[in-house]
Design a protein that fits this description.
Length: 174
């Protein structure tokens, strides 16, 4: 009997608490009066009384005098522009490093890549090598690996994510 009474109380007490804490069913309305104005707000009716002239800023714009250089060449330092494209200055071929940006079986695609990358970098030595059956677009003639790493970093920043350093026979210039 005690067990039955305790289980009934366990169910009745939460039911009473939930019912009493609920919202009341009584609906109350407050009478709110809304003032209606006959004047319509428009731009014509607004009176402007703020004078902005003393607060005007005098802006002086200096003319841009350096418009001939492209912007992406100016942000990279440490690369000299003193590379000659003349092949008569080649003393000998030695083992060195180049940065390869493309390997394809299409010669036209390799030429387009060479023409696209040449204005973006300060290196003048962009080579298209044919290693059957692929055409490889390689940049630079580096004897030191760290210089090739610098160019690889620059090319990856410019969007050539497949740039990698390869060991190759390079031209040694005067």
């Amino acid at each position: 009997m005690r067990k039955v009474l305790s289980t009934c109380l366990l169910f009745l007490i939460p039911l009473i608490l939930l019912n009493s804490c609920g919202s009341s069913t009584e609906i109350s309305k407050k009478n709110k009066t809304v003032k209606k104005t006959n004047k319509k707000m428009s731009i014509k009716n607004i009176k402007e009384d703020f004078i902005i002239t003393p607060y005007r800023t005098k802006i002086k714009v200096k003319p841009n005098t350096n418009t001939t250089q492209s912007s992406h060449l100016n942000i990279w330092y440490g690369y000299n522009n003193n590379f000659s494209t003349d092949t008569s200055n080649v003393i000998k071929k030695t083992t060195g490093f180049r940065v390869q940006i493309l390997s394809t079986d299409n010669l036209e695609q390799a030429r387009r890549m060479k023409n696209r990358v040449l204005p973006k970098i300060s290196q003048k030595h962009v080579h298209i090598l044919f290693d059957p059956p692929f055409y490889k677009v390689q940049i630079g003639d580096f004897t030191v690996h760290s210089l090739a790493e610098d160019l690889t970093f620059k090319l990856k920043q410019l969007g050539y994510n497949y740039a990698r350093i390869v060991r190759e026979k390079i031209n040694h210039y005067r």
